[in-house]
DNA sequence: CCTATCATGTAATCCGTTACATGATTAT
DNA sequence: ATAATCATGTAACGGATTACATGATAGG
C-alpha cells in the first residue's frame, strides 16, 4: 500500500533528518543526535527526543525506511527513500525570505534589562563560539560537502556581529 | 483566592506580553499585535493568535488582570499586576547564554541547496530590512526606552553580517 | 566494585501554528 | 453597492519541550 504523505507536514526538523540521512547509508536517532550537535544544532536546535519521534513520522509518510538491528539492543535504524530524496531536493531549491534571531538576552535588553551584565555573560559565550568555529574551519580539507563549510562561514560572520554589538554594551 | 502560578511556565512569549504591558496602562491583544509587529516581531515572531491565548494564561496565573470594555465590542483589555512586574524584573536581570539564528535558507545551503539562487532571494529581504532599520533609527529622539534602540542596533549589525555573507554566495 | 557519565529511549503536556470566521472600515 | 482590506477573535491539532527512566561503559 502507498504510504500516506498527507498526514505529515514537513517541518525544518523533518528536513534536518532527511538531510542527514541523505548523506549516509543509515543512521540511528542517536547518530542523528551526534550529527546535529556539532553542526546545525549551532544555529537551529531542538531536543534530542525529536530525533526519535521525527523519523517515525517520516517513516509513516514513506520518506524514510525503518529497520531493526538484529541482536543486541535492536535499535531502530533509518535510511532515506526515493520519495525522501525527492522531497529534500524540492525543498532545497525553493527560495526563502527572512530569518530570525532568537536571542533571549536581546529580548531582555529590549524590555529594559540592564545591558552591561547581560552583555558580559553573552560575550563569553559568543567568543567561545567564535573560537570553536574558527577551529572547525581549519579542518576544511575540501572533502565534505560545500554547504557545511558555507554555513560555518555564516556562523562566523554572525558571531562577529554579535561580539561587536555586545562589546559596545559591555563597555557600560 | 490566590492565583495559581504553578500551572504556567513562562515562555519568551509570556515575557513579551508582560514587557509591553509594563510599558503602558492597558492593552488589548490587538494593541499587542501592533506593538510586536513593528518591534520584537522583527527578530522573534509568532502568530497573532498567541496574543489572545497568552494573556489569558497569564491572567490565570495572576500576572495580568483582565477587564472587559463596556459597550461596543466588549473587547478584552489587559494590564500587568504587581506579580507580573516582579516576574518580568527577575527574568530581565538573569543572564543568558547563547542565541539561535533560525534561517531556513542557511539550512538549505547546509544540506546542499544551490547557493546562488538562494542568496539572491535572501539578499533582497536582507537589504530591505536593513533600510527599514536605518530609517527607524533616524526616529530616535531619546524619548523611548533605551533598550528599544539598542536592540535595533543589534538588528542592524546582524543584517549587515547577513548581507556580507549572502553577497559572497550570490556572486557565484 | 562503585559511581559517574554516556547512550538510548518513552510518555505526557502544552505552546505554537494553521485554519477558519465574522464585523468594521475604506476604496472604487 | 461591492469589493477589499483591516480588525478581532476562536478552535483544533500536532510538533516541541520537559521530565523521566534504564542499560552500558569507563574511571577511580
List the helices and strands and how they pair.
2 copies of one chain form a homodimer.
Chain A: H1 12-23, H2 29-38, H3 50-60, E1 64-68, E2 76-80, H4 82-93, E3 100-102, H5 104-110, H6 115-137, H7 146-170
Antiparallel strand pairs in A: 1-2
Helix pairs in contact in A: 1-4, 6-7
Chain A binds a DNA duplex (28 and 28 nucleotides) through helix 2 and helix 3.
Question: How would you describe what is shown here?
Answer:
Two copies of one chain form a homodimer. By secondary structure, chain A is mainly alpha-helical. The first copy, chain A, has seven helices and three strands; from the N terminus they run H-H-H-E-E-H-E-H-H-H. Chain A has helices spanning 12-23, 29-38, 50-60, 82-93, 104-110, 115-137, 146-170; strands spanning 64-68, 76-80, 100-102. The first copy, chain A, has a two-stranded antiparallel ribbon with strand order 1-2. In chain A, helix 1 (12-23) packs across helix 4 (82-93) and helix 6 (115-137) runs antiparallel to helix 7. The N and C termini of chain A lie far apart (65 Å). The relative contact order of chain A is 0.11. The mean pLDDT of chain A is 91. Chains A and B meet through helix 1, helix 4, strand 3, helix 5 and helix 6 of A and helix 1, helix 4, strand 3, helix 5 and helix 6 of B. Chain A binds a DNA duplex (28 and 28 nucleotides) through helix 2 and helix 3.
Based on the model shown, name its key terms.
172 residues; elongated; DNA-binding; mainly alpha; homodimer; two-stranded antiparallel sheet
Amino acid at each position: 500500500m502507498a504510504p500516506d504523505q498527507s498526514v505529515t507536514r514537513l517541518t525544518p526538523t523533518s528536513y534536518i533528518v532527511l538531510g542527514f540521512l541523505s548523506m549516509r547509508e543509515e543512521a540511528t536517532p542517536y547518530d542523528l543526535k551526534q550529527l546535529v550537535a556539532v553542526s546545525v544544532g549551532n544555529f537551529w536546535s531542538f531536543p534530542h527526543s525529536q530525533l526519535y519521534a521525527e523519523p517515525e513520522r517520516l517513516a509513516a509518510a514513506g520518506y524514510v525506511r525503518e529497520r531493526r538491528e538484529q541482536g543486541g539492543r535492536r535499535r531502530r535504524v533509518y535510511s532515506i527513500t526515493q520519495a525522501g530524496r525527492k522531497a529534500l531536493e524540492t525543498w532545497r531549491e525553493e527560495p526563502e525570505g527572512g530569518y530570525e534571531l532568537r536571542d533571549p538576552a536581546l529580548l531582555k535588553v529590549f524590555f529594559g534589562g540592564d545591558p552591561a551584565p547581560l552583555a558580559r555573560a553573552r560575550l563569553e559565550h559568543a567568543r567561545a563560539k567564535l573560537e570553536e568555529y574558527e577551529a572547525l574551519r581549519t579542518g576544511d580539507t575540501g572533502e565534505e560537502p560545500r554547504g557545511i563549510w558555507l554555513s560555518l562561514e555564516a556562523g562566523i560572520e554572525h558571531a562577529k556581529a554579535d561580539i561587536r554589538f555586545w562589546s559596545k554594551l559591555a563597555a557600560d
